[in-house]
Design brief:
Length: about 475
């Protein structure tokens, strides 16, 4: 089976409409495109006669399905005291009748810390690198970045190491690497950061790494957190060169990088290249709700490393054939799938979805075997965790429900909606306006059928994003038709 064969399809083999995903507490484009077109922008577009399909639609590459799917916390058992990672396997329905399809959810979890506290974590060594360039004046970007930095520092301990840098075309060391100590002095330093000129992201990034390297302690959390819109325009601007410069510190020192996008025009392309290469995390903040999620509710997940060099391996046999692996870009060799994973911190829950075609005439169904291989940071050694998922054939009794498990159904629905948004963006990019609208309509109808008794908050959040685009596209198409008829 080649890569084309494992891409998502819109039709499930049973006749249901489905579509088909790394994130530490998944946080990125799922938030980014919720605010892509705010009310003021829409009014401006309408008043100026701008084309909504050219002005208000996301790009396909900005809709990263797994980030929607992994945005919320998942119901996965935590590791035992002797484990660093737990592996949890759930079928949408383990009792399958006849030939057809079955959906498998693979979940991983790391242990929790005290919520919003680093009390039981080892010391951390962090550099906050804040973009103060002119583009950060829009939409309160610098204001939000400074608020996020302040909230972050509030949760550090006096003995943690912190450095604070601000950059535009030049880099300013606001606070050289030192113990946190008196937080009021740190808050005052952040408050003094003021808008500047052009954006030399590479210089800010390298300077942040340099500050972390000065206080580097092997086995502890050594991290750069960059708050930026990533609209670099001076100095080194080649993404590949910036990525290579970052890799020197990622590989030589094991210093992690978290890119925190500020504002809806955040340059996701550049930021993804940097973080993907480092197997690290990317987040997004645009308002106080986003700041709360990243820097208050989940601060511990940013700073407490558990594993690196991690890989997911799935093995399956005849009678169960991989139909689709949702999102991501795995490597498939015969009946074995491999996927490199991001570095893992405490507080992580992450899932993956696979759909298999079940075809075993004699009734024997071999298990699917899952394994996570990783380097355990606390034990300083390579380790692994294994799991097995079995299907059981039963006599056919009416229509087979592939999503009988409520948790798998919920996550599959969110993945479907995210894929619908992605496909909508593909059609819009090709100027296939009616097709874009129909894609969203079909996805909304599918979710309504799946959840006739209402949605939980996680499903509702993405559903409202879909509904927003549906309403806007209907208005745009109707407005265009009226103009054509005149």
């Amino acid at each position: 089976m080649n890569q084309t064969q494992i891409k998502l399809s819109l039709l499930f083999a049973t006749g249901f409409m489905f579509t088909s995903l790394n994130a530490q507490h998944g946080y990125s484009s799922a938030s980014l495109h919720w605010g892509k077109m705010n009310a003021e922008q829409k009014r401006t577009a309408k008043d100026s006669g701008a084309d909504y399909f050219a002005y208000g639609m996301p790009r396909p590459q900005d809709i990263v399905v797994e980030e929607y799917f992994n945005y919320h916390k998942h119901n996965i058992a935590l590791p035992t005291d002797k484990e660093s990672i737990a592996l949890d396997l759930k079928w949408g329905n383990e009792r399958v009748s006849g030939s057809g399809s079955a959906v498998l959810q693979i979940g991983i979890a790391t242990s929790e810390l005290h919520k919003g506290s680093l009390a039981d974590a080892p010391p951390v060594n962090v550099s906050l690198v804040i973009d103060k360039s002119g583009s950060m004046s829009s939409d309160n970007r610098l204001v939000n970045a400074k608020e996020a930095a302040t909230e972050f520092v509030k949760r550090l301990r006096p003995t943690d190491h912190i450095s604070i840098l601000a950059f535009d075309s030049n880099v300013e060391i606001i606070l050289a690497s030192s113990e946190v100590g008196n937080k009021e002095a740190v808050f005052a330093a952040i408050d003094k950061i003021a808008l500047g000129g052009s954006t030399d992201l590479n210089a800010g990034l390298i300077a942040g790494y340099g500050e972390v390297a000065q206080a580097y302690v092997k086995g502890q959390a050594n991290k750069v957190i960059m708050l930026t819109d990533a609209l670099t325009n001076t100095g080194v601007v080649d993404p590949l060169q910036i990525m290579r410069n970052s890799a020197v510190f990622n590989e030589g020192y094991n210093i992690d990088i978290s890119m925190v996008g500020v504002g809806v025009e955040f340059n996701t392309d550049l930021s993804r290249q940097i973080t993907d290469n480092a197997k690290s995390s990317i987040y997004f903040i645009n308002d106080s709700e986003d700041i709360k999620k990243v820097f208050i509710d989940e601060v511990e997940s940013l700073l407490c490393p558990v594993a690196r060099d991690a890989k997911l391996i799935l093995e399956f046999d005849q009678g169960i054939e991989l139909e689709t692996f949702f999102g991501y870009t795995p490597t498939l060799k015969r009946n074995r799938l491999e996927l490199d994973l991001n570095n893992m911190n405490k507080g992580l829950t992450q899932i993956f979805l696979a759909r298999f075609t079940v075809n075993s005439p004699d009734g024997t169904l071999p298990p699917v075997i899952a394994r996570i291989e990783y380097f355990d940071i606390s034990k300083n050694e390579k380790s692994s965790v294994n799991g097995t998922a079995r299907l059981f054939k039963v006599p056919s009794e009416g229509e087979y429900n592939a999503l009988a498990n409520e948790e798998v159904k919920k996550n599959y629905a969110i993945a479907s909606m995210a894929q619908g948004l992605h496909d909508m963006a593909v059609h819009a990019q090709k100027n296939e306006r009616v097709a874009a609208a129909k894609t969203v309509d079909k996805t909304i109808n599918f979710v309504n059928e799946l959840f006739r008794d209402g949605y939980d908050d996680d499903v509702k959040r993405v559903f409202e994003i879909l509904k927003t685009y549906q309403t806007d596209m209907e208005l745009a198409i109707n407005t265009n038709n009226q103009k054509t008829q005149k």
